[in-house]
Write a structure and sequence with these properties.
Layout (H helix, E strand, L loop, with lengths): L4 E5 L3 H13 L3 E5 L2 H10 L4 E5 L7 H10 L8 E5 L4 H10 L3 E4 L4 H15 L1 H4 L2 E4 L2 E4 L4 E4 L2 E2 L4 H12 L7 H9 L7 H15 L8 E4 L3 E4 L4
Parallel strand pairs: 1-2, 1-3, 3-4, 4-5
Antiparallel strand pairs: 6-7, 7-8, 8-9, 10-11
Helix pairs in contact: 2-3, 7-8, 7-9, 8-9
Length: 230
């Protein structure tokens, strides 16, 4: 299997070198540039499998690069994650509306970014990512329909399995009960929001084996996340 090709567009040299090292350790072929125009040129020469794109870069802005990547036939469907120091909701929405698939606000953990990239590739480029979802010591085999933590087989019901799969595809991200209902039960479901809490409790009981840290984080008034760094 060929290595996933990652285009990193970042003009902070120290951060770019750190990210390149982390992704190369995970088996990615990393192409790096600090310049928006060069990023577009590199994308035309050899379309990447995924793009990490800083909002504030030399030459063209990250938003404009994102917009042009989406317009070009060869890169219209390439997943894009925006790296930004802008944490305001309007800026995040603008990035997503321009065509970004996800965003990460600085400062961030390189480990979390690697996990997010892997999750997006699993959804959008499954041939590159295989059939195993993993986060920390937690693994889920989507084909064999089995989940393990630290090698121990977990006893999950069908709904808990779908919940865990959704969390593993979006590690670190907080989901409201409404979003979880849409993703796991379907938008037409008549299930009450409280049902989500019941299944989260069941998932916690199944996943958090004795002596192991709780992987499911509850965020007051916001929802739930799969998160090691609490």
């Amino acid at each position: 299997m060929s290595k996933p090709r990652l285009l990193l567009v970042e003009d902070d040299t120290a951060l770019a070198e750190l990210l390149q090292w982390h992704f190369e350790q995970e088996g990615y072929d990393v192409v790096r540039t600090p310049d928006g125009e060069e990023a577009l040129l590199l994308s035309r020469e050899a379309p990447p499998d995924i793009v990490l794109l800083d909002w504030m870069i030399e030459g063209l802005s990250g938003i404009e690069v994102c917009r042009r990547l989406r317009r070009a036939t060869d890169t219209a469907n390439v997943p894009i994650i925006m790296l930004t120091a802008r944490g305001e909701e309007e800026d995040r929405i603008r990035g997503l509306e321009t065509g970004a698939d996800d965003y990460v606000t600085k400062p961030f953990s390189p480990r979390e970014l690697v996990a997010r990239v892997a999750a997006i590739l699993r959804r959008m480029r499954p041939a590159l990512a295989g059939q195993l979802l993993a986060y920390g010591d937690l693994e889920l085999d989507t084909v064999a329909h089995k989940a393990r933590r630290a090698g121990h087989l977990l006893q999950l019901g069908p709904t808990e399995f779908r919940l865990l799969r959704h969390f593993l595809e979006h590690p670190g991200r907080v989901f409201s009960r409404e979003r979880l209902l849409d993703a796991v039960w379907g938008m037409d479901s008549d299930i009450e929001l409280r049902t989500v809490d019941v299944h989260i409790r069941r998932l916690r009981k199944a996943v958090n084996l004795p002596g192991m840290p709780d992987l499911i984080r509850t965020v007051r008034s916001a929802g739930y996340a799969l998160d090691l760094d609490k």
